[in-house]
Write a structure and sequence with these properties.
The complex is a heterodimer of chains A (about 375) and B (about 230). Chain A is of the alpha+beta class and about 375 residues long. Chain A contains 15 helices and 13 strands. Chain A is elongated. In chain B, the strands form two sheets. Chain B has a six-stranded mixed sheet with strand order 6-7-8-3-9-10. Classes of the chains: A alpha+beta (about 375), B alpha/beta (about 230). Chains A and B meet through helix 1, helix 11 and helix 15 of A and helix 2 of B.
């Protein structure tokens, strides 16, 4: 610690250069923090206490293939199944295609299998009584300033209505809140499957997926196999899995988020190593005579090595901590900005630990070469300017 | 007076490409404790090389060097660094202060290698600065000081850990006459009143007049000895 002021002073010897370098490190770690939050958010998708007792049944081939509605009573009859609900993807956009709203056409008992989604009895009654009614998450309602009774136009990317238009119109009848504060649930819209099925000429009598609640979670594997056996060797073979696994597979069918995040961060950190490494080399080269003077005074080769390494590690840690702190600040607004798509945006202990380990590692990496040069510095040659 | 530095048959050879250049030829020299010695000679005569060898910055190619009874030519890098920290203060022509630190912090740097606490380091540095007459410039950065003041800060840094030997390489080479006289006067005080042994390389005969003894080097050999 007693050398810290020496390291700090050396670091800010050329303030402009250090601040610019620091900014590039902050940006790299800001990106790392945001992308890691996205990765963690996708990894945690589907994880919930209630989700453990839910099984999702979808088409084995692809999540875009639908299943016959006739499967519902058969699944309900499987031993160990408590209740069955179903849903279809609607894919709504509000006013502008960029304003994506996660909209699902759901069975009447859908909310029964999702007890963590809170709806007042009055709103639930209003929804049940109005086939054109929709329930919207509280975050969404606040975002767009909707009020109960408003007519909400939603555009489906896929499904046309009876007139052949993809512009649908619904009446907002109730609000949904998430018991767990889940931004996805507070950012979605539910409409009646019956209304959807009657209105669109596509996939009539078909559902996107089934959700079954099991009586005993220990029986989940057996129940999943029994459900899939119902459609074995048919044209609509199913794949039943836990909600968490289903969500992960759904995301995997869209993209390998982990690979994307790792690839981007690999490129960012590789560039950072080159740029910052070059800056450190230059900074140390400029201070050759000062380092020689330290050695003259009795600083050993190892101490000089440690001072230069300390400088690069401190620079990276400084940038890393500021970058991750900024992510924490941005994380407070990101769930709302992403419409609940990115849910878990706080920088968790694991992200902090990974970020600090990365900063330290990169600091050692970029400091190694200049530190070794400084360590091997010949005092006489350095003082003579050779 | 006891002998502080004993140089016996010291040679120094540098490799310049494929060629070997012998800079010092079998030099023998004794420097007494409390001496103020000036080393003079033309450029390339080996003055700075001899100074570097005495200060433990370089090793001889042959012969032996003892300082305070300890052979320093046989010490390894780490041990030699420790020895320098405890026994030698260096004063350079271009001051070589760390530009980002204040005068006070510059003087404290050698004390980082001791076991002193932060408060003790601060106090000792303040005393050293007071001794060189710069107590009121403690918070100034080197760029805010004149050349003479910077050299006095460098002297404070050289004496702060109380070494017995001060080696000075052209300490007035970059100063105007008045500042040079101030610095030389200060070195004389350190020698006479504080008992420091000083070895000073200089081209300036006026500077050499401050020393008690002047040695001349030519082509790596001691050729003349004069006593003030």
């Amino acid at each position: 610690m007693k050398y810290l002021h020496l390291i700090w002073a050396a670091l800010f010897r050329r303030k402009t250069r250090t601040i610019l370098t620091l900014l590039s490190i902050i940006m790299a770690f800001l990106l790392f923090g945001l992308l890691d939050a996205v990765r963690v958010s996708f990894e945690d998708a589907g994880k919930s206490a209630n989700g453990a007792e839910r099984l999702q049944t979808g088409a084995r081939l692809s999540f875009i293939q639908t299943l016959p509605k006739s499967l519902e009573p058969k699944i309900a009859a499987v031993s160990g199944v408590k209740d069955v609900a179903y849903a279809n993807w609607f894919g709504g956009a509000y006013q502008d295609p960029h304003n994506q709203v996660f909209t699902f056409a759901v069975s009447d008992n859908y909310l029964d299998v999702y007890p963590e989604v809170l709806v007042t009895p009055e709103d639930r009654k209003a929804f049940n009584e109005d086939l054109n009614g929709i329930l919207a998450g509280e975050m969404l309602i606040k975002k767009y300033g909707w009020k109960i009774g408003d007519t909400i136009p939603l555009q489906s990317q896929i499904f046309p209505n009876q007139e052949g238009s993809k512009n649908w119109s619904f009446k907002l009848v109730g609000v949904m809140k998430s018991k767990d504060g889940d931004a996805f649930q507070e950012g979605m819209v539910l409409l009646h499957w019956k209304k959807f099925d009657e209105t669109t000429p596509y996939n009539q009598g078909e559902v996107g997926w089934y959700i079954s609640r099991v009586k005993d979670v220990n029986q989940a594997d057996r129940i999943a196999r029994d459900i899939d056996a119902l459609s074995a060797n048919s044209d609509h073979e199913t794949k039943t899995q836990t909600e968490e696994a289903a969500t992960r597979n759904w995301i995997k069918q869209m993209a390998d988020i982990g690979l994307i995040v790792t690839s981007i961060m690999g490129a960012v950190f590789f560039t950072l190593v080159l740029l910052t490494g070059n800056t450190m080399m230059q900074a140390v080269r400029e201070r050759t005579s000062e380092l020689a003077v330290l050695k003259t005074m009795g600083f050993s080769d190892n101490k000089v090595l440690a001072l230069v390494l300390g400088e690069s590690v401190l620079l990276l840690l400084l940038g890393g901590v500021i970058g991750l702190a900024l992510v924490s600040a941005i994380g407070m607004v990101l769930p709302t900005m992403s419409g609940g798509m990115i849910n878990n945006t706080h920088v968790g202990i694991s992200s902090w630990a990974l970020g600090i380990a990365l900063a330290s590692g990169i600091g050692v990496l970029i400091g190694a070469l200049p530190a070794l040069r400084a360590m091997r510095l010949n005092i006489v040659d350095a003082l003579a300017g050779r | 007076m006891s002998t502080l530095v004993e140089i016996r048959d010291v040679s120094k050879t540098y490799a310049r490409g494929k060629q070997k250049v012998e800079v010092l030829h079998h030099v023998n020299l004794d420097i007494q404790q409390g001496d103020f010695l000036a080393l003079m000679g033309p450029s390339g005569s080996g003055k700075t090389t001899l100074l570097n060898l005495i200060g433990g910055l370089d090793s001889p190619s042959g012969g032996s060097i003892s300082v305070g009874g300890q052979r320093i030519d046989t010490l390894g890098g780490g041990a030699l660094a420790k020895w320098r920290a405890a026994n030698v203060g260096f004063i350079f022509q271009f001051y070589n202060l760390l530009p980002m630190l204040s005068a006070q912090k510059n003087v404290e740097v050698p004390l980082l290698l001791t076991g002193l606490s932060a408060a003790e380091r601060k106090r000792n540095a303040a005393i050293a600065l007071q001794l060189v007459g710069l107590a009121d410039r403690a918070s100034h950065k080197p760029t805010e000081l004149s050349g003479g003041q910077q050299q006095r800060v460098a002297i404070a840094r050289a004496i702060v850990s109380d070494p017995s030997l001060l080696v000075c390489d052209e300490p007035t080479g970059d100063l105007d006459r008045q500042s040079a006289e101030d610095v030389l006067g200060l070195l004389q005080v350190l020698n006479r009143e504080h008992g420091k042994t000083l070895i000073m390389v200089t081209h300036d005969p006026k500077a050499a007049e401050y020393a008690e003894q002047t040695l001349h080097l030519d082509k790596g050999t001691l050729v003349e000895q004069a006593t003030a």
